[in-house]
Task: inverse folding
């Protein structure tokens, strides 16, 4: 489980206020062992075919799982998901 603190967007009137008065939400992001493995293999440069073979799954299933991870992390592309995981030391 990875906890990610997200600060809400501020307006011009809120920027003058103290940062301590802002509320922060903590979003829990849970990645399974297989999802972390997929991100690690992507980071190592494996193509989807190679990852699918290694994980004994179809390309279609793998693409669906990658899309689900991206949605959960709030990123647009698998590259962004890999960068997100790398910054947090998951891969």
Result:
């Amino acid at each position: 489980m990875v906890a990610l603190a997200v600060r809400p967007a501020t307006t011009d009137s809120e920027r003058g206020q103290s940062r301590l008065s802002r509320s922060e939400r903590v979003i829990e992001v849970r990645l399974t062992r297989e999802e972390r493995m997929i991100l690690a293999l992507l980071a190592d440069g494996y193509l989807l075919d190679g990852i699918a073979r290694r994980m004994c799954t179809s390309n279609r299933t793998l693409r669906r799982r990658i899309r689900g991870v991206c949605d959960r992390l709030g990123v647009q592309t698998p590259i962004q998901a890999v960068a997100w995981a790398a910054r947090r030391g998951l891969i």
The chain has one domain: 2-87.
